[in-house]
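Weekly structure sync - notes
Attendees: PM, LS, DV (DV joined late)
Agenda: review two folding runs queued last week.

Item 1: First target. Sequence and structure tokens pasted below for the record.
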Amino acid sequence: MNICEIFYSLQGEGRLTGAPSVFIRLAGCDLHCRWCDTGYALSDKQGRTMTVTDVLTSISTYDCPRVVVTGGEPLLAEELPDLLKALHDEGQHITLETSATRFRELVCDLISISPKLSNTIPQGTVYAQDQERHRLNLTALRHYLVRHDYQLKFVIEEEADLAEVSDILDRLEQGPDGVAVNRDRIFLMPQARTRIELQQRGPRLAQICLARGYRYSPRLQVDLWDDKRGT
């Protein structure tokens, strides 16, 4: 599999915010989000080829019990199930970060899902229509919610995005295959690739969370290190 980077840092988002973790960033993504902050991981040709054994050797130098497998989109990697099983067998607590555009059987302790809203669509580009078609897979989402400990992280740019969040939650719960979504596992995060954007959007989103009962997720990596890669 192609690995863009392996680094040691603090988890910046969700309910494990602040936890020291080793990050394993896989190369390749099936989406082209307008505000993507890891463009260097979009192509599956980026990074360097590593075996599962190579990855285990690399993370062993950090003496940390938590790993975060991220991307890009890690679900695209054919070797992902083998990597997750190996990490599990090593006793690691595994967070898998994904947009969940497809379903795969896998092992993890926490699946951190960031369903992509329409604010991700790169309007006016060749990727716009494909992004709209593939950014949301409700069937896959339902499968993950009933099989795993989960959190849902929605990136909010404007208050109008909240109607779309409500619609997605309603659609997940409706129909014969509907699942009850635990509201305490839903996090709203400000769309921010830089510290200035975070300072501009964070306080307003915090007020929205207070008014609507959602959990607010900081973006600690942005607050501490701005847009520096590998943090």
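Item 2: Second target, run right after the first with the same settings.
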Amino acid sequence: MPYTVWSRGRLIGESELAYARSLPGLRAGDFEPSPIGEKLMPIIVGVGPALKVLYGVAAEVRRDDERNGRTIPIGEFPPSVRATTEYADAMSLHDELESLSLELHDLQGALVKTDWISVRDMQRLVAEARAELAQECPEMVWEEDEREPWEPEPPRYQIMVGLEGFEERMERRARRRR
């Protein structure tokens, strides 16, 4: 029986969280949305693409500022970026995602405390990677691998979960390395 993800009493989807564990407190696996979850996937997976676009805008502004002798502290968006629709989109999607109040429940249905839950659209990520590779290496032909008839369709979505205390452990680990 899989772990389940809920939003305000609605089943969003499920996952076995069966990927190999790479860090203490980090779980990942294929994610299968429920019918309601499928309708919410644009919000659930939309923050990543919106941030990618925002970071592209911010990088261009930063390069422009550097060419003109201005420096913006790392980690801050300059006012010219905060005034863009890309910034507004990224911030509103983040707020929408937070408003879903995603919760992870274990095999018995009990709430599992988490620092965060993140779902990725793998079809979109693969398509973006292929487009970037084609742009960087136009002389190469990037064809999709053809699946064997007995191979299952790869999952569209993957989920990563930071269990409660994960962020704190990662911060302590980073401080020890300094």
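Discussion on item 2: The chain has five helices and seven strands.
Action: LS to circulate a short write-up before next sync.
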